[in-house]
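Weekly puzzle thread! Below is a chain. First person to post its structure in C-alpha cell form gets bragging rights.
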Amino acid sequence: MSEHKAGFVNIIGNPNTGKSTLMNVLVGEKLSIITSKSQTTRHRIMGIVNEDDFQIVYSDTPGVLDPKYKLQESMLNFSKSALSDADVILYVTDIYETIDKNIRFLEKVQKTDIPVLLVLNKIDLSTPEKLDEIIDIWKDVLPKAEIFPTSALEKFNTDNLFTKVKELLPVSPPFFPKDQLTDKSERFFISEIIREKILINYKKEIPYSVEIEIEEFKETDDLIKIAGIIYVERDSQKGIIIGHKGAALKKVSTQARKDIETFFEKKVFIRLFVKVAKEWRSKNFDLNRFGYNINK
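Winning reply:
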C-alpha cells in the first residue's frame, strides 16, 4: 500500500486573474464567490480534496493589492501568510497582467524555497504567438517555477495542474477528517452568497462598503430559515441597498435564496435587513467582529 500524502496548497495572485474560478475547479465545488469586480475574495477560504491516498488543502487568498484602509490590510496579510505556511504555491496570473503590478509581493515569491507553480490563466483569450511571449517573460521572472498555461473557465490543463500538485505533496497523514470539504461554516457561505449578489447588482463603492452577518440559521428536514444583516458604512448607502420600495433588496434576497437552495439542496426562507456601522472597514472592533483578525 502506498504512503499517504497531504499538504497545503495556497493560491495567490492579483485580483481579476481568475484565482477563485481555479480554486472551485480544483476542489470540484463552488466555495469561492466569483464576480468581475476586484477584491471579491476577502477571507482565506480552504477547500479540501480527499482520496484514499492523499488530501489536498487548497486555500484561496484575497487578491494582492496596496492597502488603502484596515480591511485591505487584513486581506493583504492573508496573502502574505500564504507564502510561509504552504507546501505548494499556485501563483495565478493571466495573459493581461503586467509584471510591475505589485512587484514587491512578487519579489517575495521569487525568494521562497516552497515549490511554485505559475498558472497562466485565460489563455483561451490569447493567440499562440502572444502566449509564447508571455511565457518567456514569466520564465525570466520566476525561473524556478513550472508554468501551466491554463483556462480555468474552460477547465483547460487543470487536470495536469492537479496531477502536478499531487506529485509535490509531502508524505503525511491527513490534516482534516476525510469527509470535510472546507474550514468555513454554513453561515460563512450564506453570507458570501449574499455578498456575491451585492457585488453583481450594485456599482461604484457600494459593494466594497458592505459586510454580511447571519443572525439566524435554523434548519429542519425540509426547510432552512435565515435572517441576515447587511451592514453599510453610511446612511445614504442604506437607501441604495434597499432601493425604491425595497425592490433592490428584494432582488438580492431572491437571487441569494436560489443559490443557497442549490448549495444546501433544500428550500430556503430568507429575511435580510440593512443597518449602518459607520466606517466599519477602518475600525478594529468591527473588523474583528466580522472575522478579519486585526491586531490592535
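Puzzle host: Confirmed. Bonus trivia for everyone else. Residues 59 and 130 are 30 Å apart (CA to CA).
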